[in-house]
Every structure is written in structure tokens, then in C-alpha cells.
Amino acid sequence: MAGRGRGRGQMTFSVEAVGIGKGDALPPPTLQPSPLFPHRAAPLPGGEEGEYMLALKQELRGAMKGLPYFVKPGAPRRGT
After folding, report:
1. What is the pLDDT of residues 54-79, one digit of tens each?
2. Residue 4 pLDDT grade (very low, low, confident, very high; cuts 50, 70, 90)
């Protein structure tokens, strides 16, 4: 007959690996969720440099759409 391991199974998790020693106090439980981050939009950079970057981005996107590798989305089919 084949054996099923050696000795008794042991836990693979040790408290010392987490950084809590024997006898140390555990951290308090979390009773409420963490506060949400504000959902404010970041202000757009103004001035000549910001306008230049915006124009450059629009030109790059237009050039990418003109490439033969750009796949145009198909029209949605009815009945599927």
C-alpha cells in the first residue's frame, strides 16, 4: 500500500510570517469602509502648451484612423 504523506498535516500559515509575534495585540477591526476619493475632474492644462498638446493628440488620432490596420466597427445586426 502506498503511504499518504509523512506524519500529521501542519498549517502552512504562520503568524510570524505576517509580522505579528506571539503575545502581541492584534490590530483593531475595521468597522467602516475607507473614505472614497473625490471624483473631481482634474483641471485641463491651459495656455499655449496645453493647446499644442491637444492639437497634437487630435492629429495623431486622426492619422491612426487613416491607417489600413484600423478596424471600423460594424453596424449592429438586428435579430441576434
Report:
1. 999 999 999 998 888 888 888 888 87
2. low
- The answer on pLDDT for 2 being more than 70 is no
Please, which residues have CB within 8 angstroms of residue 64's CB and are 6 or more apart in sequence? 70
What's the rounded Cα separation, in Å, for the pair 48 and 56? 12
CA distance 60 to 22: 60
Q: Which of 14, 30, 10 lies closest to 22 in space, CA to CA?
A: 14
Contact 50, 43 (CB under 8 A): no
Instruction: Count Cβ neighbours within 10 Å for each residue of 35-63 and write b for 16 or more, e otherwise.
Output: eeeeeeeeeeeeeeeeeeeeeeeeeeeee
How many angstroms separate the CA atoms of 45 and 51, rounded? Answer: 8
